[in-house]
Predict the structure.
Amino acid sequence: MKNSILIASMICLLAMTQVQAQNDHTGTLNSTTKSTFNYMKEGVKMPYCVKVQESRNYNAKFDIADIGKIDKDRIGTPVKVSKLITVTNNSNPRDNRIIALKYDKQGADTFKLVSNEKGFTINVDNRIMEYIMGKGIYFANIADRDFLMVDEFDSIE
């Protein structure tokens, strides 16, 4: 009797493991970077800090024809990228902002944060968003606005 219960529980455990192995696998990546830049205001360089908190959610999906096989082909799925950009200006607290940037990306992207005279520019795979200190977000190309989902908030101290 003990052996039959042990064998039944082992079969049940192996079946649950097999079912779990067939589910889609996910992964996440979280990172934070801090930068200090300067912008020109009435001929004077004004320092400000930019903190970028990045979160990526990876989904792994497999080809339906490979269900039950040992070797499976992975289907490329878009990566959900979210970036929380915090702008801190100690000399003028009214310029403190929080920007939520979201987009879908296939594989690795080229995210660049570059300082300019008025603020900073964000370049994601040649889609450009400019942040002008004291004024807000500016898109040179309307199509870039459709790719980058942006929300801007005032920072509460």
Observations:
- The first strand starts at residue 25 and ends at 41.
- The helical segments are 2-21, 142-147.
- The mean pLDDT is 79.
